[in-house]
Amino acid sequence: NAGATKELEIDTEKDRDGRAIREKVLKTAAERADGFEDDKKYRGLNSYVDYRAGFRKEHSIASEKGSGAHGPMRASSNVRMTFIMDYKPDICKDYKETGYCGFGDSCKFLHDRGDYKQGWQLDKEWEEKEKQRKAALAKLEQMERNMGEDGVCVPLEDDEDDEEDGIPPACPICEKTWDAIRDPVVTKCKHYFCEHCALRHNAKEKACFVCHRPTGGTFNTAKEIVKRVKEM
């Protein structure tokens, strides 16, 4: 099996780590212990000759492992990745469903009556909570915007609602008519824009271009405008 002998090199290369450098120093010291003539050449910081190393038995890699004289120990490079998906958890079915098991404490399965949710259920609950949180935050920001100087809530003026259907004849930003716009969108505050203008304005300011209320980054397809353009 090739996976059993596979190596994962995450540390320094084996020929450049502290152990390799120390082995090189000890080897050089052992070779130059007897009758060495210094040639006065500089061979780097790690090439100084320890003349005592060749005569001392304790100066060896084996004896220095415990003391850590040649640096930290290398981590094991032999790895074997395993992954287990527990499609059949060892839970006692009788105890989980009824709360009673005939085997009692001698049952080899786990006595647990807890319910575990699937990943998609947890994600769905989180998305719903985030949606509610953003809606509450947008409502709070809207109340703060509508608050007067004396702390009294000022009633909103919905000029567009007084019109026949509340749909302007063109995009308020680029002033293009709806028949010339490909993707019209509508905000939560019922103001209509073309998609390009709405996204560009939302990147600069998180509020509606018309009423300056927070949009929450939500733009839905303006089905009323699409229907009107088709009827033209």
TrEMBL record:
Q: What keywords would UniProt list here?
A: Metal-binding, Zinc, Zinc-finger
Q: Which GO terms describe its molecular function?
A: zinc ion binding
Q: Where are the zinc fingers (C3H1-type)?
A: 86-114
Q: Which residue numbers delimit the C3H1-type domain?
A: 86-114
Q: Which GO terms describe its biological process?
A: snoRNA splicing
Domain RING-type: start-end pairs = 171-212
Highest taxon above the source species: Eukaryota
- Cellular component aspect of the GO annotation: U2-type spliceosomal complex
Q: Does the keyword Zinc-finger apply?
A: yes
The identity of this protein, by name, is RING-type E3 ubiquitin transferase
User: To which species is this protein native?
Assistant: Micromonas commoda (strain RCC299 / NOUM17 / CCMP2709) (Picoplanktonic green alga)
Q: What is the lineage of its organism?
A: Eukaryota, Viridiplantae, Chlorophyta, Mamiellophyceae, Mamiellales
